[in-house]
Amino acid sequence: MRLPHPPSPERSAELRRRFAEEARSERPDLSALCLLIGAEADGGLDEAGIDAAQIELDGLAGRLPFRPGGPRSWAVALRELLGERCGFRGSAADYQRLESSLLHEVLRRRRGLPILLSVVWMEVARRAGAPVYGVALPGHFVVGFGAAEEQVLADPFDGGRVLAGADAELLVAGATGAALDPSMLAPADPLDVVLRILNNVRAWAAARPERSDVALWAVELSLLLPSHPARLRYERAQLLVERGDFLVGASELEAYAEVVGAVDEGAAERVRRQARAARAMLN
């Protein structure tokens, strides 16, 4: 991937306003949220590029057969189109690339992480009228078709392979060593999908300290979601301090300590000490 330049501060502010607005809408649009993440990561993704990505998803949906049948027929149709004819799939190397978490790049490269490939599957299938949803298995995201009693799972990372009865159990066991619980097969909420994508971006950046800029925008977008872990506020404060914004970082550490102090005064005092250390860096 070319080294992307960040959007301008004005463009970033507009993207974040739209992201927050979409996330709080009655029916959040998953593809729109993912493309706004992409635009925050890559200043080269302008409005024309966002529109082109949506048009490509529309076009792919138009290539599906009309109402092919039940859940399994939908899964097979998506596999044949996206996995076999279009070549969407993933590999181990994709976990090392930031663009594997950016929808516009996944559409361009036909490669990505399991969750982004699943977004492609879901958005194409949804446009065609399929009963599709994401399934957030521990460590490996897949897609589901149909109601619980007739559910069919497919693995977009493996080119859309339709999973047999024991395959989901093996995926969970390989990722966690634990048994598959039926609750793991429930449809994933779109905003949970977005948060998981941002978590992947944060994990990518955490392994690359020189990309704390990526970690910061990923945390800040996560904080715009209606529901998010409170600890993200602490992570943002730490990142600000690491990037030399000592005063703002210290203030946010102190604000987080006030929240934590209601349940764990010892932890709150540790955070206050971090805030004092950050302020001392200015002396």
TrEMBL record:
Pfam family, one: Transglut_core2
Organism, as annotated: Streptomyces justiciae
Annotated Protein SirB1 N-terminal domain residues: 74-199
Family label: Belongs to the UPF0162 family.
Membrane-spanning residues: none
InterPro entries assigned: SirB1_N (IPR032698)
Name of this chain's protein: Transglutaminase-like domain-containing protein
